[in-house]
């Protein structure tokens, strides 16, 4: 089983021509004496906002350029189901008189089933594996809680399992190397970054020792078993993907020097791009000429958020290994480019105002088109997907926020931050192809 990037070809058309036809409408409200940046209070139709936000956004899967075995996915799914099947759900008062405990077990079982259902619908193998790992945690909590009630499991058993997983993590890390094909360093970066990310996730579940001073109950034993199982599942996925990747290489070679040079080169580029950026705590009027008129507007909210996400005081280095830092640098370059784009457009008077739900719909449409265009126009689709998949998920975030207002009318200033997500998506996505080009050059890809 492998994610097939070509599966998205059907949606890789460009809508820029179509958007250009509506440019007069989209840019209505451009700077001018008779059309100020910030008009009086604007009321938006809440029901129309909800309809707009709830429409399907662009679908972009995170890249996973490794053929994952069908049996590995099936084993993870079957383990979750098998753990749930050990408990006679739904429990009755005869099975378990403690009502609070019955409710806790039922909640965990429902949580596991929800993730299992989501895994079936997932379009990408990477997302499917992650959802199955998340399902196995609460499924194990159900199994372990019931086993503790029945006297078949103790807290000491779970502590032993935790130590076993921690030892497995140490051994796996000690044997890791950043190998790959020198002719395709992008594939190696993506795979090693993912493996590193999964290892950090596994660590988080088992790194802290349980609080032995708290009462030990079947529920607490179940929760500790939950953590161990999620770590075990995530480590298993990391090991499988890493091994399958290495097996796919005809002549594995160390790419650590290539990765190091790329990271350092991109760090210099980021530092250079940040030289003329306003200070970290700059106010909106200091971000762009005429910024004082942006307070309470969608453009102002987007510009402030973009500025706040930039790396200050030199390049911020996340808690990630070398390959993960390179992918973070792709994201950072796109964020810097998005901020520069929006700042320059506002300074030039190229500013969209929002006066109705129809304007929000146009803004959302432009954001979706920008994601699709960036995917089609990037020199390496896999690198582009590392950022565009995240941006595509922001459409759901915006929908969840805007749905809160229901059918009531709402003042623009109350929802400006939520609507601004669409503007951020648009300008960041537009900067992705250039960020990909910078990264390819740093990796020595011609």
Automatic annotation (TrEMBL):
This is Uncharacterized protein. It comes from Halosimplex carlsbadense 2-9-1. The lineage of its organism: Archaea, Methanobacteriati, Methanobacteriota, Stenosarchaea group, Halobacteria.
């Amino acid at each position: 089983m492998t994610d097939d990037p070509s599966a998205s070809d059907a949606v890789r058309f460009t809508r820029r021509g179509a958007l250009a036809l509506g440019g007069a409408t989209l840019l209505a409200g451009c700077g001018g004496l008779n059309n100020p940046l910030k008009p009086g209070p604007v009321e938006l139709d809440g029901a129309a906002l909800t309809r707009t936000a709830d429409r399907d956004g662009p679908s972009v899967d995170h890249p996973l350029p490794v053929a994952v075995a069908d049996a590995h996915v099936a084993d993870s799914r079957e383990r979750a189901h098998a753990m749930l099947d050990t408990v006679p759900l739904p429990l009755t008062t005869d099975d378990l008189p403690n009502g609070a405990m019955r409710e806790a077990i039922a909640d965990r079982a429902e949580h596991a089933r929800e993730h299992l259902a989501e895994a079936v619908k997932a379009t990408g193998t990477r997302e499917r594996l992650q959802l199955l790992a998340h399902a196995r945690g609460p499924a194990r909590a159900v199994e372990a809680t019931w086993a503790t009630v029945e006297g078949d499991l103790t807290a000491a058993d779970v502590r032993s399992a935790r130590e076993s997983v921690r030892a497995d993590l140490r051994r796996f890390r000690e044997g890791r190397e950043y190998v790959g094909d020198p002719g395709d360093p992008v594939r190696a970066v993506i795979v090693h970054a993912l493996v590193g990310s999964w290892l950090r996730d596994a660590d988080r579940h088992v790194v802290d020792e349980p609080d032995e001073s708290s009462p030990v109950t079947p529920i607490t034993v179940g929760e500790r078993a939950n953590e161990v199982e999620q770590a075990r599942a995530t480590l298993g996925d990391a090991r499988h993907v890493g091994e399958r990747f290495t097996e796919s290489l005809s002549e594995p070679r160390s790419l650590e020097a290539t990765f190091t040079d790329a990271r350092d080169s991109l760090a210099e580029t980021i530092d250079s791009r940040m030289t003329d950026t306003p200070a970290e705590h700059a106010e909106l009027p200091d971000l762009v000429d005429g910024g004082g008129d942006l307070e309470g507007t969608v453009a102002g909210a987007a510009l402030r958020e973009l500025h706040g996400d930039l790396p200050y005081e030199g390049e911020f280095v996340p808690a990630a290994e070398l390959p993960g830092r390179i992918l973070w640098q792709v994201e950072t370059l796109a964020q810097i480019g998005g901020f520069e784009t929006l700042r320059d457009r506002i300074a030039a008077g190229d500013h969209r105002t929002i006066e109705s739900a129809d304007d929000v719909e146009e803004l959302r449409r432009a954001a979706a088109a920008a994601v699709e265009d960036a995917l089609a126009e990037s020199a390496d689709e896999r690198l582009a997907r590392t950022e565009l998949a995240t941006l595509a998920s922001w459409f759901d975030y915006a929908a969840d926020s805007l749905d809160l207002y229901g059918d009531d009318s709402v003042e623009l200033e109350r929802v400006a931050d939520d609507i601004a997500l669409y503007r951020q998506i648009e300008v960041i996505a537009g900067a992705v192809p250039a960020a990909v080009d910078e990264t390819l050059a740093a990796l020595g890809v011609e």
